[in-house]
Amino acid sequence: MLRGFYTAASGMIAQQRHQEALSNNITNANTPGYKADQATLRAFPELLIQQMGSKNIPTKDGHQIAQRQGIGSLNTGVYVQEFVPNFAQGDLRETNMSTDLALVNGQFPDEKGSVFFTVQNEQGDVRYTRNGNFTVDSEGYLVTNEGYYVLNEAGNPIQTNGVQFTVTPEGLVQADGQMTQLGIRYAANPLELSKEGNDLFSGETEQVPQGATFHVQQGSLEQSNVDSLQSMTQMMEAFRIFETNQRVLKAYDESLGKAVNDIARF
C-alpha cells in the first residue's frame, strides 16, 4: 500500500514541475528569441516481480528444489528528468528598428546546428543568445535590454555612436565609416548548451563552419517559438493528471486511516 502512496505522490510532483515549465513558456511567449522548454518524464527503475517457491522432486528421498516464476514488472513512480529547450526557428516580425536584429538559420553541416549572437554579461563572461532586441547605450555601444555588451568577432563591444548604422546579411556592422563583424558563434548541438536567465546560454561553441548558410536581418526580430495554444492544452492535461494522482493519494490515505483506526481495534 505504501508503494502506491509514494507512486501517486511522485506523479503529482512531476506534473507540478511540468506545469511550472509550461507556465514559464507561456509567460515568455512574446519574448524575442525565446526557446520553449520541454519537460521529459521518466519512470523510476523497474522492479521485476517473481514468485518464489519450491517444487518436489519425485525421488525416493523427496528432495525439493527452489523455483521462481516471473510475474511481471512494476514501476515505482515518475519524475521529471530534465528540461530540454526547443531550438526550432521562430517566426520573424518586422519592427523597422535599426537596433533589432534577427538570425535566420540556413543550411548547416549538422542538422540540429544553430547560430547565436555573442554577448558579455555583468560578470564579464561570454554568453550566447538568439534575442536580437538590442539598443544603444549612452556611450554608443550596442547592448541588450539588460545592458550586456554585444560583442564583435574579436570579442570586443561594438561601438555604433547612435542608431544610424546598418548591418549586412553577413553580419557586418557599418557605422561612421567603420566596419566590424558581429560575433556570431555556431553550436553543432545546441542541446549541449546550458540555459540561463535573461534568455542567455552558456557552453562550448565554435566558429561558423565553411559551407554553413545563415543571414542577419536588420529591422526584424525572431519571435518566441512557444505555441501558446498547445501549451494551454498541455497545461490542462497536466492538471487533470495531477488531480487523478491526488484522488489516488486520498484513497490510499483513507485506507491507511481505516487500517490504523478501525482494524487496530480488533
Automatic annotation (TrEMBL):
Record-annotated Flagellar basal-body/hook protein C-terminal domain positions: 217-261
Domain Flagellar basal body rod protein N-terminal, chain residue ranges per copy: 5-35
SUPFAM superfamilies named among the record's database cross-references: Flagellar hook protein flgE (SSF117143)
A Pfam entry, by short name: Flg_bb_rod
Domain Flagellar hook protein FlgE/F/G-like D1: 113-175
Alphabetically ordered keywords of this record: Bacterial flagellum, Cell projection, Cilium, Flagellum
Domain of life: Bacteria
Annotated compartments: Bacterial flagellum basal body
Family that this chain belongs to: Belongs to the flagella basal body rod proteins family.
Name under which the protein is recorded: Flagellar hook-basal body protein
